[in-house]
Amino acid sequence: MKKVFILGLLLTLSACAYVDPSLTDQTKVYTDAPVRKSSLQVSVHPKSKQYRPLTAYFHPFAIQQPNSDYEYLSTSFAQIFHNVWMEERLFPIMEFQPGTRYLGLTRALELARRRGADLLVLGMVPYFYAGNTLDETAITIQINVYSAGTGNLLWTMMQSGRIEDQFPEDYFYFRHDTRLPQGPFQKIIRSIARDMATPLKAWLPAPDAGYQFAQDARDVEANLTPTAPPPSSVEQMESNLPDETDAPEAQADRPQINGVNLNVEFDFDKSTIRAASYPLLDSVGEALSTPELKGKRIIIGGHTDAKGDEKYNLALSKKRAEAVKAYLVNKWGIPSDLIQTVGYGKSRPLTDGTTKEALQKNRRVEVRLAE
What we know:
Oligomer: single chain
CATH architecture of the largest domain: 3-Layer(aba) Sandwich
Radius of gyration: 25 Å
Helix content: 25-40%
CATH class of the largest domain: Alpha Beta
Shape: elongated
Structural class: alpha/beta
Order of helices and strands: HEEEEEEHEHEEEEEHHHEHEHEHE
């Protein structure tokens, strides 16, 4: 029975490790040392959910521990973190320029405003130790997220992580050794970045809302009318924060907001609405005038296909959303202050197809509740 147990343990370890078999000596099993992390501390956060997608400027990290490789580490640490948040698709656009260096909060805010970003993401590294493959590696990261326009601090999160050398474990039939991985900083920073993305996901709107395409006013009203109170309280957001464990793996689900997609057609490379789409927009105006939706705040989001430059598409999609807003305000008398607009550009396609129908499907207008 003991041999069966040992064999099962050996097979389990070998599934994610390197095995050095031997007929004369002990078989050796090597696994990479795990990342051990402190609990994620969120000391500053917004008091309500964000319904409008935001763009962000990611600045190089501030290394607060004196080091001769300051500029290299400042950029490389930030690049690793930035890449993870890009994979998590937190923001439609998140700019980062590897050639820059940390310039301080005031200068970083100026750069974020100049790029038209909504947020500034600024990282601080108060402590790090590089052991590489010989000794333990450790790092502490604090992330501050500011409103680029006002300079107000919205988020402050801090977490520490380390990879430690461990003593071998002797199981008589084989020996288990833990090895220090190549690129330990990358492994630790990626793990911390994923943890810090969790509360932001609970705050931000979902990147892939599965909204239906509306054909008439009945479709618009059915998809926009709220069926339950929106989860916008502090308690709802805090319930989506990661558990205070060594390795919070689960990602919070983002609450879905009522919304609908519209197949609005525009003139090529312009924000001029084609007359063929007027009846569809009239359906939206009719639905927003019903007792169930009258006075509700909405967000109009513009989307483009994948052709063209990212920044150009972002601006074009914003103009198209503004054109739809103008139509609803001018023809249907929807109060202007009840409508927000945002451009997604080509960041959130519904399909990867290149046919005419697929491209048109991506060139949609999204209407959803803002509360």
